[in-house]
Write a structure and sequence with these properties.
The protein has 396 residues and is an alpha/beta fold. The chain contains 13 helices and 8 strands. An 8-stranded mixed beta sheet has the order 3-2-1-4-7-6-8-5, sandwiched between helices.
Length: 396
């Protein structure tokens, strides 16, 4: 018969204590990231309310659209911008083709021939979206530069509402409200739409006391004087707002500037897009790591750390919860329940990825939550390996 020594029992107890500590810490961080941080932001918006001012101003505007093989939507997008409720003599549209190989160039060139407000530019070699924006910004004449995706459709009053916050001299960058149309009913599409609603609400709260952390590239605007040419591997809708904050201006969200896009058709497309976006954002954070200095940048340092860095590190804490709960499986009912609960959650996510049908939140939430965090994990590994992504493919 094997005899357990007191030392062995102490070792097991110590191991269990470590597992519980890891589980509690990991779980606490995850709760803070997704619930605690938004709650603290809401509290700050009530205690330290600093809402930006708005007014009915009509500055000259240049809308910049980067496009690569967007023949299916580019004509509709450009026409949508031409028909917005905005004085025609104050509006300019620049479309930059990133060496498109389809009919994109011909479609845009045709519109430009008919309407002088449209300017068509082409990059002869594929250099990516950021290079396209840099190219367009050099020739843009508008006081405000507005960035639109090639498939972004604006509401009629979106441009008027998007420029209103620039009446406040402290505002340097404005982002609007993205609303995803689930045209291809899928579990990942429903999850993406719900996730965007969560992000929009958080951005609105952040704007009430300071600046937004992260914006949406389909509906952004910046004062031209604050536009800084960006490295071609930088995520423009993350790096540029950070440079604006670096220059002492605010980045704010307006829920009245609406833009709609279609969600991606399946989980694999959504996953690939999320990996690309997060990877490029990580490189932007590295470039602007000095913004994490709370003595110089105050609350925004806390926001950047909480909203982005901890969010991107969430996969590590999810893994910590899973592994630690396995070691606690035989340590009483309360502790034993957590491992099967997590396994069931991930099985539901896997089931959702196989179905690709619009189903209940019981499937869509686990699927999209797992998809986003798995994308973060892949992006983190790629970042640590020094991998960068410059070019992109259009959403399908």
């Amino acid at each position: 018969m094997y005899n357990f020594s007191p030392g062995l029992l102490y070792g097991v107890a110590e191991e269990m204590s470590v597992a519980k500590t890891l589980f509690i810490v990991s779980k606490a961080v995850l709760i803070y990231v997704y619930i605690g941080y938004p709650f603290l932001c809401l509290l700050l918006s009530r205690l330290k309310r600093n809402k930006y001012k708005t007014d009915d101003i009509i500055p000259s505007v240049t809308i910049i659209i980067a496009a690569y093989n967007e023949e299916n939507c580019i004509a509709e997008t450009v026409q949508n911008k031409l028909e917005l409720d905005y004085p025609s003599d104050k509006l300019e549209i620049i479309v930059v083709s990133d060496a498109s190989s389809d009919n994109t160039d011909a479609l845009v060139a045709g519109i430009a021939e008919q309407d002088s407000r449209v300017i068509f530019l082409r990059q002869q070699n594929r250099r990516g979206k950021t290079a396209a924006l840099n190219t367009a910004a050099e020739v843009a004449t508008g006081e405000i530069l507005v960035f639109s995706d090639a498939n972004s459709i604006y509401n009629q009053s979106t441009l008027l509402n998007l420029v209103k916050p620039f009446a406040d001299s402290s505002v340097g960058y404005v982002t609007g409200k993205m609303v995803y149309n689930v045209t291809k009913k899928s579990a990942s599409g429903d999850g993406c739409s719900s996730y965007m609603k969560y992000e929009n609400r958080l951005r609105e709260i952040e704007s009430n006391f300071g600046s937004v952390v992260g914006v949406d590239g389909g509906i952004d605007a910046v004062r031209k004087q604050l536009y800084t040419p960006m490295p071609e591997d930088m995520q423009p809708d993350f790096g540029l707002p950070l440079s604006v904050i670096e220059n002492g201006r605010r980045v704010v969200f307006t829920p009245f500037a609406l833009v709609s896009e279609s969600t991606l058709g399946n989980s694999s497309e959504e996953f690939s897009m999320r990996v690309r976006v997060i990877l490029r954002a990580l490189w932007a954070i590295k470039s602007f790591k000095h913004l994490l200095n709370p003595f110089k940048y105050g609350l925004f340092s806390w926001q950047l750390f909480s909203h982005k860095i901890l969010r991107y590190l969430a996969p590590l804490f999810l893994l910590g919860c899973l592994i630690s709960s396995l070691f606690m499986f035989n340590d009483g009912t309360w502790w034993a329940i957590w491992f099967p609960v997590q396994v069931a959650f991930y099985l539901l996510a896997f089931a959702g990825s196989r179905m690709e049908k619009a189903v209940s939140p019981l499937i869509t939430f686990p699927l999209y939550f797992t998809l986003v965090n798995l994308a973060s994990a892949v992006a983190l590994v790629s970042f640590l390996k020094g991998k960068k992504m410059v070019i992109w493919k259009p959403r399908t």
